[in-house]
Amino acid sequence: MTDVKSENTNHKAGWSRRDVLKATSAGAAAGVTPMFFTQNAWAEEALGNYPVKGSEVVLGFNVPQTGAYADEGADELRAYKLAVKHLNNGGGMLDTLKPSKLTGNGILGKKVTYVTGDTQTNADASRTSARRMIERDKVIMVTGGSSSGIAIAQQYLCNELGIIFMCGLTHSNDTTGKDKQRYGFRHFFNAHMTGKALSPVLSKEYGKDRRAFHLTADYSWGHTQQESMQEFTEKEGWSTAGNIMTPLKTTDFSQYLSQVLNSDADVLILNHYGANMVNSLTNAVNFGMRDMQKNGKNLEIVVPLYSRLMAKGAGSANIDGVLGTSGWNWALQDEGSKVFVKTFTDEYGFPPSQAAHTCYVQTLLYANACEMAGTFYPPEVIKALEDFQFTGAGNGETLYRGSDHQCIKNILVMQGKSPSARSSEFDYLQIVDEVDAKTVDYDPAIFGGELGPYVPA
Amino acid sequence: MTTQNNFWQHNRTVLIFALIALTMPFWFPLMGGYSGLDTKIMIFCIFVVGFDILLGFTGYLSFGHAAFFGISAYVTGIMLKSFSDNIIPAILVAVLAATLVAVIIGLLTLKRTGIYFSILTLAFAEMFDSMAMSMLQKWTGGENGLTGMPTPMLFNLKMQGDTVFYFVTFMAILLFYLAKRIERSPVGLMMKAIKCNQTRLEFTGINARKYKLLAFVISAVYAAIAGALMVVYEPFVGHEFLGWHQSGEIVIMSVIGGVGTLVGPMLGAGFMLYFENVLSVNLGEQWLLVLGAIFMAVVIFMPGGFMEGIARLKKRYFTTVDGE
Amino acid sequence: MDMTLNAFTLSILTGLQLGSIYVLIALGLTLIFGTLGVVNFAHGALYLIAIYLAVSINNALGFGLALILVPPILFIIGVLLERGLIQRFYDRPHTDQILVTFGLAIVIQELLKWAFGANNIPFSIPSWGNGIIFMHDYLPFLEGFVVYPKWRMILVVVAIVTVSAVFALLHLTRFGLVIRAGMRDAEMLQFLGVNINRRFMVVFGLGAMIAGIAGVFGGPVTQVSPEVGMQLLVPSFLIVVIGGMGSLGGAVLASILIGMAQSFTAPYIYINTIIIYLITVIILLVRPRGLLGAKGVFE
């Protein structure tokens, strides 16, 4: 971890410390001396931490280092460090990403260094550490995170301060929906795409005549996930028997599962992530729901969003056969995935998770955009990313849509492996289907929200 | 009545504080601090000084003060978003709202002593936290937090960067001065008497309840002002502002600094925030463990906190045999 | 609330089983408070130690050993804590007790997080406890297919047995007599020549041991991760207060009450999240000593 103290300290329309020093006499002057600093002298040049002085450029990696998602955050950090290594030395996806102007010599000739922050899986803490990285360490870009609340909170912050934010793992529709920001970019897929990709597979596996009961984590991601799943399963002919919101802090889901048992549903959809999913799935299995029959059919459990960490926490006995979606998996055989898995495994001894994948790719995409724009000046970098079409990053042909800064790409339908079918301690899920980008594409207008101006007000 | 000389003497602490605070932007970066953190420290100084009026003077340990901090923050945010981007009406309405809630909660909880009071305030804080996350999601933004506020304005002045710092520091100095005045006043004396021996106080005919409620509400007002200023500084309100974790942090700050001294808790606030944001980078994941251990050590060996430590050092090194 | 008999039965069972975990923790809390007068904010952390110990032993050596080893180990830990830390605080104000145990809770939680990581560790239910009970075989008034997990029913039984054991200990043994006397008036007891300190040590250890039992059986239910301790502590405290601080019967009653309240309000999320706080506030306003608390105790 290296700290770079660059000289540049100008925030967009405010004051700089230099001006306060010049204008105010130090001492007990307990008052605010309004000074209006004319913008014109610096106008379109200084924005956020641009321009970048010196021979190095600093990236900010804000990941959960403590709290519930610490393991995922650790994996994200590994991916980031690997990305920096490749950016400075070549290798990895620099060889497969097309079109790419990356040289393997840093970004725009400057060596890439980084600082890290701890989001503590807490929106307030994430903003605090992001702020520290921006104000003190002068990062040119902030990235990372394992939860949508955190991503959205940081997006707003970075948007105000003129720093580009490359989202880490965030699945809520809101991140590029109603909370979209000009300075925020999401590569990871969203709940809507999950619903669209998963539902056809579900109806193929389980039939079209099913009644689904949803248990939903009571926060924005849970809500969007549930809405998307309900919308697309009903399109397949399913009906919805009910939906119960579960408080985010719940660890014991028995009271809600009782309600599910009481109903006539034959599919349980768990709109839960992380610890919630681990607990609700384990509880459901304890209730014997995997072996139950309802309406003459086997009761099935669906976990729309999968991650290897969750699978590990729940244990393979519990996820055996359960269907869900993922953004990426290390078993994929395309060039980009293979080279990423190889370099990651060589470096760390085990394969990367989907969180690591998205973080690695985001870093490279940002660097590439700077190269293509020929500058670090955020509005130009943003324009370079918008509507950028690329391939070789592990998800097939991908479009970084300009209207909402969301990547439209292939996503995976996954199924839990039984304990006997696992080949290693990292092998929890198998790929059932790779759903094409065109299938999961959608009209950005359905989510509303506005990107905002290129130069923050 | 008071001579010029007396004013400076009486308010020496406040003036020293003012000096240190106002020059913070210059010396803070030298220790690894950064712009923004200094503002946050000032905000928490306000919060913690008010808290000390309750804990330090009356001895009532509230685990729920974050509720006032959070309620005020949410109201400020909502006011900025929907009413006007001027911070003055926002702050006024927010503090008023939080004060109202404080009066109600105070009347309900202060009937009980010691532990009951602590647990009850804890229950209230958790209740508000849960409400903000679930039933009031539409207004509070739930787990995402309240975002999308316009740039706060003080009439025609944009509240950004150092402007906010000086505004907050000005408020902090003012409120610290006020707290000192309260301490020296008869009201403060009554409050301290409650901590000493509430029963005996009541035997002398004083209505302790009145003073307890006053202390409670005053500390809530401080918390509310801090909460409102928090939004002016950082246009974001998370539900974490309300919960007992936040309350717990304030307790830790006060105890580490030195309960009852007013200055101590501010030191504690600065220490904890510095620890959390600057030193934590070097300590990695274990900063909370280290902080918890420090906290325990303080409670066990040096319950007067930093102030007690300073007093002991003073005695050791700065006094001669006749205690001069 | 329009409910079928099936639904009602399921909710009752759920309420009982939710209450069982609460009662095991609340019992230790109220025992410690009633006897020693100490507010143990670190009780959730004791539960945390129990579940991590239990899951480690279970995954390595099997459940049987976990069952045999964890409660005694927790007893010893309780005793050590009391001798090493808590006893220094008997003469200090209640606030200080809360503070030091609060700090202890943080330290224990962070240490466990450091050692085991923040992620959940799966605690598998032993095979003899796994599976479901066909409730419709036992309760003739149920129609159709009604099941409940075996392990949770075992948990209820364990709670009943533990509570009965504690009551028996307190009411039927000499040791219990001394403890109960100590709860009434510790000073007088010392004047009578009883070594109250040794009793305190044992009681604290006992409270920790009950948390140990809770951990062994509750681990698979509450899951094993660092936040579980505090998450259970807050409701447990409220339950102790609702039942009446120092009253064991009150703790039992309040646990069942809260368990039922949470179970029956499950479909209504807005009430479900705050029902426990509402009940606390109402009880404390209407009957400040708690449901079964002794009059005059910390009112």
Characterization of the model:
The complex is a heterotrimer of chains A (457), B (324) and C (299). With 457 residues, chain A is an alpha/beta fold. Chain A folds into two domains: 1-189 and 331-408, Rossmann fold (3-Layer(aba) Sandwich); 192-326, 3-Layer(aba) Sandwich (Rossmann fold), CATH 3.40.50. Chain A has helices at 17-23, 70-89, 123-135, 148-161, 191-206, 220-235, 254-262, 274-286, 308-314, 316-319, 335-348, 354-373, 378-385, 437-440; strands spanning 56-63, 111-118, 141-144, 164-167, 184-185, 211-217, 239-246, 267-271, 293-294, 297-298, 300-305, 323-326, 388-390, 398-400, 407-408, 411-416, 429-435. In chain A, helix 2 packs parallel to helix 12 (354-373) and helix 3 runs parallel beside helix 4. The longest helix of chain A has 20 residues, at 70-89. Chain B has 324 residues and is mostly helical. Chain B has a single domain (35-279), classed as ABC transporter involved in vitamin B12 uptake, BtuC (Orthogonal Bundle). Helix content of chain B is 74%, strand content 1%. Chain B contains 15 helices and two strands. The longest helix of chain B has 26 residues, at 208-233. The two termini of chain B are 29 Å apart. With 299 residues, chain C is mainly α. Chain C has one domain (5-228). Chain C has helices at residues 5-36, 43-61, 63-84, 94-116, 135-138, 150-172, 174-184, 186-191, 196-222, 228-243, 248-264, 269-286; strands spanning 132-134, 147-149. Chains in contact: A-B, A-C, B-C. At the A-C interface, strand 7, helix 7, helix 8 and helix 9 of A face helix 1, strand 2, helix 9 and helix 12 of C.
